Amino acid sequence: MPLARSLSVTSLSGLEEWDEEFDLEDAVLFEIAWEVANKVGGIYTVIQTKARLTAEEWGENYFLVGPYVESNVRTQVELIEPPTPILRRTIDKMNSRGCKIYFGRWLIEGSPYVILIDVGFTAWSLDTWKSELWDISGIGVPWFDREANDAVLFGFLTAWLLGEVRDEEPHIVAHFHEWLAGLGLVLCRQRQLPVATIFTTHATLLGRYLCAGNVDFYNKLSEFNVDKEAGDRQIYHRYCIERAAAHCAHVFSTVSKITAIEAEHLLKRKPDIITPNGLNVKKFSAMHEFQNLHAQSKNRIQEFVRGHFYGHLDFNLDKCLFLFIAGRYEFSNKGADLFLESLARLNYLLRVSHSDLTVIAFFIMPARTNNFNVETLKGQAVRKQLWDTAQTVKERFGKKLYESLLVGQLPDVSKMLDKEDFTIMKRAIFATQRQCQPPICTHNMLEDASDPILNSVRRIGLFNSSSDRVKIIFHPEFLSSTSPLLPMDYEDFVRGCHLGVFPSYYEPWGYTPAECTVMGIPSISTNLSGFGCFMEEHIADPSAYGIYILDRRFRGVDESCNQLTSFLFQFCKQSRRQRIIQRNRTERLSDLLDWRYLGRYYISARHMALAKAFPDIYQYELNEPTSTSGFRYPRPASVPPSPALSRHSSPHHSEAEDNDEDESYDEDLEAEKDRVNIRQPFVVPFKNKSSLFVTNGDGEGDATEKN
């Protein structure tokens, strides 16, 4: 078969072009996931953002398969007739046999085709299919587990669909995401369908449950009795489906090295390849554009802060830093416990150092609430009333000034404001008086007494008092531009903050710090997150670029807390100019997280699967790169190489800081060096199909044995 398509899909300078090419004219890709056009968690973001690149590679031969959810379809999918006779016949045949299959275009970038399966419509087959599953695999699914029942229906219907299509299409690649879609893969292999299969786990089931139970997860990975642990948590049937999918797949992948270690111990198979998660990066034509967006969004956050702290606004907003943590409300897994303890220690350091800086930490984590807090809403109302009063007085003042100038006289300032004006202003000032402290939480919590964040705040004693240099705002709801309280989308909010803090204990990838990076906002993550490991591998000195990596793998909790406090304190000591320089550097890393680069790992996985499933037709080998130097972002020139000075790697403070022209020149020079030096590692599969070679940042390689 002629080889016609190049695997190289990036134009990043210095990146080796791959010589081997594949002809995908006779191949069809089906990507199957429960979160296709159905937002549940992070996998939705992966598939949605990756769709454009995959559609460009596969064209009309790319189909996403997911569940039919009517509320989502009405707003996200345009239902159309299948474009090919093969698909029309397949869907008509399945519909005539009691199924309900829909076809359309998902209205996202790339407009990929979607095949949506109504699992509820075929619920009458559930008992029959569960019995068949037991006969072929010994996996029993309890009647009360609705999610597992949906997985059974979805799996059998997916396998049925692929079985019908395989009679018409010569070479099929089926990529399954997570255990909810994994049963379809198991059935494809059990029925010996000629389909190249890939299974990607974004986080193992058992890993999530174990970490939620506050166990020493990573130090005891090799000691867990996985069958017993899954059984104790009543997820043994789910675990068996996930493990079966991992072992049956031609290619097994995970999203990060840390998850690969976890999968090897819990699922008992070492991943063949790591497929990191990317984003669609919007590049700005000029560096100052994203800095302007930061300033605009920061002003909107400052307006909210003015209302929230009315009556106690005894700090300078121009000397105020906004920190935030966001994500699912997993108190320990997401590191909210460590963040709160570090904030208490940071508060002490700022107070004893007599700092005039104020830190406001936002916790954006959805929890069970009973509407907005009245005191919080009142604060925004008072702020708006003060603004209206100021505008009224300003108009009256302006009118008198205008009339005075019209007659050619300089105004008498003592007569510009009359008694009524002073009365209005005094009433406005009295309205700002407050007898209580500014609230911690913006909403009424349904479980206030047992909420872990609020209980930690009570323990550490950070109640937004005037003497505290660290203030806390807990917003237990996702952000929205339609909110009457903080009317901002999440992206705008992130742009307005100074630092994202994500000290997660369990984070297979970590989209939140990745989103910060592409928006030029520095962040703190850990070496237990996929994002943190990825950045450590690609950047010589991550913290110099605003990517602080907290050690939670080889340090105890107290040591990690001290390290996090040190990161925060050093960040607080930066000047405004240093923060601007650091944001410029952070934004330059966005190329590393673009699907244009990271998509090649998914391309490689698909080609590996084709070569394994159809070895007589597809050969998958790659010449070694001619050079292995320069595979990491270097340390910026303005950061001293001394370990003592670069321990926290904040941008070097120039003695001539006021000379903006010199600083700007240095930054431009560093940016150009980054563009010249960027050479990302890439996957190099050798002819020996028992190993996978991955070049690392030092030009050396690790051979990963295939299971």
Automatic annotation (TrEMBL):
Biological process, per Gene Ontology: glycogen biosynthetic process
Biased amino acid composition, Acidic residues: 657-671
MF terms in GO: alpha-1,4-glucan glucosyltransferase (UDP-glucose donor) activity
Catalytic activity: [(1->4)-alpha-D-glucosyl](n) + UDP-alpha-D-glucose = [(1->4)-alpha-D-glucosyl](n+1) + UDP + H(+)
GO cellular component: cytoplasm
SUPFAM superfamilies membership: UDP-Glycosyltransferase/glycogen phosphorylase
InterPro entries in the record: Glycogen_synth (IPR008631)
Function of the molecule: Transfers the glycosyl residue from UDP-Glc to the non-reducing end of alpha-1,4-glucan. Glycogen synthase participates in the glycogen biosynthetic process along with glycogenin and glycogen branching enzyme. Extends the primer composed of a few glucose units formed by glycogenin by adding new glucose units to it. In this context, glycogen synthase transfers the glycosyl residue from UDP-Glc to the non-reducing end of alpha-1,4-glucan.
Protein name in the entry: Glycogen [starch] synthase
Source organism (scientific name): Takifugu rubripes
Protein encoded by which gene: gys1
